[in-house]
Amino acid sequence: MSSPLDKKEVVANQLERAALSLPAKTQQRLWQRIAWRKVGIFLLSLFLFILAITLMKEGARDLGPLVRDRFAINNPANSLGFGWLFAYVVMSGSPVAAAALTFFDAGIINQLGAFAMITGSRLGASFIVLFIGFIYVLRGRNRANSLGMGLLSLIVTATTYLAGMVIGLFLLNSHVLASFQLTSGAILTSIMDRIFDPIAAFLVSFLPNWSLFLIGLGIIMLSFNLFDKCLPEMTLKESQVGRVSRLIYRPWVMFLLGSLITLISMSVSVSLSILVPLSQRGFVRRENVIPYIMGANITTFIDTLLAAVLLKNPPAFTIVLAEMLSITIISVLILAFIYHRYERAMLRLVAWITDNNRHLALFMCAILIVPLILLFL
Question: Domain count of the chain?
Answer without folding.
Answer: 1
